[in-house]
Amino acid sequence: MDNHLCEELAARYGTPLLVYGGARLAENARATVSAFGGSAEEPRVFFPVKACYLGAVLRLLAEIGLGAEVQSELEFHLAVRAGFAPARIIFNGPGKTDGELRLAVAEGVRAIHVESAEELLALNEIARSHGRPVRIGIRVHVPMPDQSLPFAGAGWKFGADVASGDALALIKLALQQPHLRLAGLHVHNYAQQRSAHLHLAALRHLHGLVDQVPDWTPDYVDLGGGFAPRSALEGAGTGVQAIACALRRMASAIAPTLWVEPGRLIVSDAAVVLTRVIRQKVNSGRRWLLVDAATNFLVPGPFSRYEVQPVGQIDGPLVDTAVGDGLCLPGGVLNRAAQLPATVGTGDLLAVTGAGAYTLNFGSDFGYPAPAVLWLMGPESEPVLLRPRSTPAEISDTWH
Ligand SMILES: Cc1ncc(COP(=O)(O)O)c(C=O)c1O
Question: Which amino acid residue places its CA nearest to atom 9 of ligand 1?
Answer without folding.
Answer: 263
